[in-house]
Structure formats: structure tokens, C-alpha cells
């Protein structure tokens, strides 16, 4: 596997290899020299067609800790705003000799198209409402670190599943890793054919919480909403928001996750976001380790180390 | 990994040289390693025990009691050896000796020549390595490339007062200006031979095995004298 486009492409052994590698690489942040020479002389391009703080910075930090050269390409101020197509942008990157391209795009499937045009590895950093595989990997990594296992872990993903690439990637990856996923959302915010996904679906948050080891709150993606999916923010928050009272229904060692950015007071109350159960800050730190692992395994050797299946 | 015959960081060696990964690991690394039919044991358990006891005493002698030493093993078998040496020194001196492991995968000079591999574990004692005398420990000294990588890795972790090298088997054929300070056994070998160290903790028994390399036509790896995979 040359590219990382979908979490569903990862076999169990690939996913475990990435998590184990990330576990070792997490130490680099604590050392006196926070850098490894591994990707010296390799070029990683960050191609972000959509706004992002943590993902872009996280990829940039990961590539730099591995000594790769990082080129940041933001759409604002680039030729894309003059009407350049994705293909022409890709060919430009190709001419610059990019070994890895990290792409975020508002169109689902853009990384897949890009992978046909460039020779380097394409890493999907979020495409439309499709997938965000490194987010799912860092979420799984955070769960494994906090709770010590992934097999049979009960994970409840709450909120705007319809627009959430994070939810899609998480369902695919967590299923591969043996966790049991339950989606909880208003019916209007569930995608068509969600019953074919390898997970359970429920509509009542309060009854799902006592049976959860992990609760993952999704951001309500206002910017992607073309219609009225729920009557009011207040009503959404009352039925599907996580406040301190709801959090008390969780088992004692359960954790609360959020991929960020948060709408405090909407899907998650401030007191929950800042509680010791919340892993939100950890998720950001773990993101760098996981992305280092992905970059290393895709770009570090003579050929990518992923895609080996269950050999 | 059942056997790790030699220095790990030659420019084009096979997968089988890699330190064992925490779990699983990329494919292809263990092929052909189960077959020890033509292998000859040059050191047996008691020989290894005596060699380690001697090295432990030599370390104490050379470092004048070894008050500031840290033993760092290179995964996989180097770590086992470092632990055994630490225990022996403790038996002699009656105080614990800090030991740990130092993974060199990310510092290898042949990363680009093979698929990316799983990482070993790096674990330093709580007091770190700054200002201390670090003794690197590995099973086989061969090309010297693993040790070079280990020195680079160590430099990123801190600044030891000095670095020394302890090795169970020195099989010669150095490709870099590197020598060991403590050697369990000098074992003259040809490049057509392989050296495999087995340790009870990793392999169920203690032995150093010398074997003829199965000839693979056109393997092109001969100059390293390592197992073809």
C-alpha cells in the first residue's frame, strides 16, 4: 500500500503495526533532541484545500521530527484561487519531487484522484465527508493507551455522523481492531445505508452511556449543513450534548473524546471538555506520534511497510 | 526472532537482521531461520556464562568499580545480554546497575534499501545517560554499522561522559573504524558463514551457532556475509 486514503484499507496487522510504531515514536517528544534522522532528504508536501489548524500542524510537526523537508501549501494565496485544477496542482508537486503528499480537500475522493497523478505517497488528511484515517488511528491509539486494549471495547460515537469523516474512519478502523461501535445521532444526521456499516445505531444517548467505555463526541458541522437537520442548537444540545450530568452515567473508567475543534456548550459542555476523563489534549499530542508512524512506514524504507495483510 | 546472526546495519542485509518488533512485524523477516541442521555450536551455555562473568569483571576493573556506568543493550539480544551483565555486576558489587535498551532502527544507514521495519524499544534508566559511562552491549560485532547507528542514537538522547562497547562474539569483517572494549569471544569467520546467537530468554537456549550460508545464486549480498533471507 503506497497511500493511506481510507482507514478501511488497513488490515488488522497494518493497524497494529502503526499503533506499535507510534508507541515507540511517542518517546521522541520527551528527549533532549526531539528529532530522528530517518526521513532526511525526503520532501513532504502539506496540501490543504480546507481550513485546519491541528491536522496541518500535526503533520508538519511529525514530518519535521523525522527530518523531512516540509512544504506547506495553503489554498489561500496559491494559484488555486486563480482557478488552477487539482490535477495541475498535483503535476506541479510532482515536478518538485514530493515523496509524500498530505492532502485535505472538501471533495470526497480528492486524495484518491490525486494518487493517480503523483508518484509519491498520498496521505488523506480528511476529504469531504468521506474519511480521515489518521484521526481514526490517533483515536484508537489514545483509547489503547488509556484503557489498555481495543478488542471488545465499547465505543459510542455521538452526533453529526452524516457529515463526519472522523466517524466513518473510526467505524472502519475500530471494527478492524475488534471494538464494538455504536452510533448515536438524531435520525436526520445519520447517513443513508448506515445499517450496512459494521456498527450498531441508537437514538437515545442516555441509555447508551452506561454501556460505553469510550464516548466520542462529534462536532456539529454547521458549515456543511445545507438544510435544517435539527430544530435548534438548544434542543440538539439537550438531547445529544454531553454535560456533567450525562457524564456521570458513564462507567467509572470510561473516557470522553472529541476530535476537535469543539463547540463548547453545543455537543460538549465546557466542564466535560476540561474534566480528567477528557482525552482531548492527549489526542492532539498523540496525533503527532501516529502521523510520524504513518510517514515512517510509508516513506521510510525502500517501499511502504503497510498493506502486508495478515501474512 | 529466532536468530540474529550479526551486526544489524550493513548496507544491504536481509530482513532477518532486524531487532524483533514489539509485536507482529513486516513480512519476510523470519524466512529460512528455523533451519539449523548444518549449524555448529561454537559456544554452549556454560561458555556464554563464563564469558559474561569475565566481561562483568573486566567492566568493573576498567571503570574502577563502575560507579557511574549505564548498560545499554541493542535490541533484541543485546538487551538480554545487558540485563545479564547488570545482574552479574550487582552480584559482585552488591549494588544495582542501571541498564536499558537502545533501538537503532531509525538511525540505520540502510533504511532506504529495505522496506520500513517495525521499531524496537528504547528505554533509558530514569537518570538518563548524561555525564555517565555508557557501555553499549550487543550480541555480534560484524560490520560495525549497528554500533555507528547506536552512537548516533545515543548522541540524540544525551551526552555520556564516555561510551564503551561490550560484545559477546566478534566475528571480524569490520566496515567502519569501530572496535569492542569487551569481547566474549573472537570468532574468526569467513563471509560465507553466519553467526547466530541464541539466548534462553529469547530462544529457549544459550548457544552461539556457526553455519554455512545457503548459497543463493545472484543474491548479491555476499560482501556483507549475511544470511540471505
TrEMBL record, chain A:
Protein keywords: Pyrimidine biosynthesis, Transferase
Top enzyme class: transferase
Residues annotated for L-aspartate binding in this entry: 82, 165, 219
Domain annotation Aspartate/ornithine carbamoyltransferase carbamoyl-P binding: ranges: 3-144
EC number: 2.1.3.2
GO annotation, cellular component aspect: cytosol
Domain Aspartate/ornithine carbamoyltransferase Asp/Orn-binding: start-end pairs: 152-298
Domain of life from the UniProt record: Bacteria
Subunit structure: Heterododecamer (2C3:3R2) of six catalytic PyrB chains organized as two trimers (C3), and six regulatory PyrI chains organized as three dimers (R2).
A biological process term (GO) from this entry: amino acid metabolic process
Protein name in the entry: Aspartate carbamoyltransferase
Originating organism: Allonocardiopsis opalescens
Family: Belongs to the aspartate/ornithine carbamoyltransferase superfamily. ATCase family.
Catalytic activity: carbamoyl phosphate + L-aspartate = N-carbamoyl-L-aspartate + phosphate + H(+)
UniProt function note: Catalyzes the condensation of carbamoyl phosphate and aspartate to form carbamoyl aspartate and inorganic phosphate, the committed step in the de novo pyrimidine nucleotide biosynthesis pathway.
Stored PANTHER family: ASPARTATE CARBAMOYLTRANSFERASE, ORNITHINE CARBAMOYLTRANSFERASE, MITOCHONDRIAL
GO molecular-function term, one example from the UniProt record: amino acid binding
HAMAP family membership: Asp_carb_tr (MF_00001)
Pathway in which this enzyme or protein is active: Pyrimidine metabolism; UMP biosynthesis via de novo pathway; (S)-dihydroorotate from bicarbonate: step 2/3
From TrEMBL, chain B:
Segments forming a coiled coil: none
Keywords for the protein's UniProt record, in alphabetical order: Glycosyltransferase, Transcription, Transcription regulation, Transferase
Catalytic activity field: UMP + diphosphate = 5-phospho-alpha-D-ribose 1-diphosphate + uracil
Gene3D superfamilies given in the database record: 3.40.50.2020
Compositionally biased spans, kind Basic and acidic residues: 28-38
Motif (PRPP-binding): 134-146
Pfam families noted in UniProt: Pribosyltran (PF00156)
Top-level division of the source organism's lineage: Bacteria
Region (Disordered): 1-44
Domain Phosphoribosyltransferase: 41-185
Record-stated family: Belongs to the purine/pyrimidine phosphoribosyltransferase family. PyrR subfamily.
Functional summary from the UniProt entry: Also displays a weak uracil phosphoribosyltransferase activity which is not physiologically significant. Regulates the transcription of the pyrimidine nucleotide (pyr) operon in response to exogenous pyrimidines.
Listed name of the protein: Bifunctional protein PyrR
Source organism of this protein record: Allonocardiopsis opalescens
Lineage of source species: Bacteria, Bacillati, Actinomycetota, Actinomycetes, Streptosporangiales
Originating gene: pyrR
Amino acid at each position: 500500500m503506497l497511500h493511506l486514503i481510507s482507514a478501511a484499507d488497513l488490515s488488522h496487522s497494518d493497524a497494529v503495526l502503526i499503533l506499535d510504531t507510534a508507541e515507540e515514536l511517542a518517546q521522541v517528544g520527551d528527549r533532549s533532541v526531539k528529532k530522528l534522522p530517518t526521513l532526511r532528504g525526503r520532501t513532504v508536501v502539506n496540501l490543504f484545500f480546507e481550513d485546519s489548524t491541528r491536522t496541518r500542524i500535526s503533520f508538519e510537526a511529525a514530518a519535521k521530527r523525522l527530518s523531512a523537508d516540509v512544504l506547506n501549501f495553503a489554498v489561500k494565496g496559491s494559484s488555486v484561487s486563480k482557478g488552477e485544477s487539482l490535477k495541475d496542482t498535483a503535476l506541479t508537486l510532482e515536478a518538485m519531487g514530493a515523496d509524500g503528499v498530505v492532502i485535505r480537500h472538501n471533495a470526497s475522493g480528492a486524495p484518491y484522484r490525486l494518487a493517480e497523478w503523483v508518484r509519491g505517497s498520498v496521505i488523506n488528511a480528511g476529504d469531504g465527508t468521506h474519511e480521515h484515517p489518521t484521526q481514526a488511528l490517533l483515536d484508537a491509539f489514545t483509547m489503547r493507551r488509556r484503557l489498555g486494549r481495543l478488542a471488545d471495547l465499547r465505543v459510542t460515537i455521538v452526533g453529526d455522523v452524516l457529515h463526519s469523516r472522523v466517524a466513518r474512519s473510526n467505524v472502519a478502523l475500530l471494527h478492524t481492531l475488534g471494538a464494538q461501535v455504536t452510533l448515536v445521532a438524531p435520525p436526520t444526521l445519520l447517513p443513508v445505508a448506515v445499517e450496512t456499516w459494521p456498527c450498531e445505531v441508537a437514538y437515545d444517548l442516555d441509555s447508551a452511556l452506561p454501556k460505553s467505555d469510550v464516548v466520542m463526541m462529534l462536532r456539529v458541522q454547521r458549515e456543511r449543513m445545507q438544510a435544517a437537520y435539527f430544530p435548534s442548537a438548544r434542543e440538539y444540545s439537550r438531547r445529544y450534548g454531553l454535560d456533567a450530568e450525562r457524564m456521570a452515567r458513564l462507567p467509572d473508567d470510561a473516557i470522553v473524546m472529541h476530535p476537535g475543534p469543539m463547540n463548547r456548550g453545543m455537543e460538549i459542555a465546557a466542564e466535560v471538555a476540561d474534566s480528567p476523563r477528557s482525552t482531548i489534549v492527549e489526542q492532539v499530542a498523540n496525533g503527532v506520534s501516529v502521523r510520524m508512524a504513518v510517514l515512517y512506514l510509508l516513506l521510510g524504507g525502500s517501499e511502504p511497510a503497510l498493506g502486508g495483510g495478515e501474512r | 526472532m529466532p536468530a540474529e546472526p550479526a551486526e544489524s546495519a550493513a548496507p544491504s542485509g536481509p530482513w532477518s537482521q532486524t531487532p524483533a518488533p514489539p509485536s507482529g512485524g513486516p513480512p519476510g523477516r523470519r524466512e529460512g531461520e528455523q533451519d539449523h541442521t548444518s549449524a555448529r555450536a561454537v559456544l554452549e551455555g556454560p561458555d556464554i556464562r563464563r564469558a559474561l562473568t569475565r566481561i562483568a569483571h573486566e567492566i568493573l576493573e576498567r571503570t574502577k568499580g563502575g560507579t557511574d556506568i549505564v548498560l545499554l543493550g541493542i535490541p533484541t539480544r543485546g538487551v538480554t545480554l545487558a540485563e545479564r551483565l547488570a545482574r552479574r555486576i550487582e552480584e559482585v558489587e552488591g549494588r544495582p546497575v542501571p541498564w536499558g535498551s537502545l533501538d537503532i532502527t531509525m538511525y540505520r544507514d540502510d533504511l532506504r534499501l529495505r522496506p520500513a521495519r517495525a521499531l524496537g524499544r528504547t528505554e533509558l534508566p530514569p537518570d538518563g545517560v548524561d555525564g555517565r559511562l555508557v557501555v553499549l552491549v550487543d550480541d555480534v560485532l560484524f560490520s560495525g554499522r549497528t554500533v555507528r547507528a547506536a552512537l548516533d542514537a545515543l548522541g540524540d538522547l544525551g551526552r555520556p561522559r564516555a561510551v564503551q562497547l561490550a560484545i559477546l562474539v566478534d566475528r571480524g569483517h569490520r566496515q567502519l573504524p569501530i572496535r569492542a572494549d569487551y569481547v566474549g569471544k573472537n570468532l574468526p569467520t569467513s563471509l560465507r558463514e553466519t553467526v547466530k546467537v541464541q539466548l534462553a530468554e529469547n530462544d529457549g537456549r544459550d548457544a552461539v551457532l556457526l553455519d554455512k550460508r545457503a548459497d543463493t545464486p545472484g543474491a548479491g549480498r555476499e560482501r556483507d556475509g549475511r544470511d540471505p533471507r
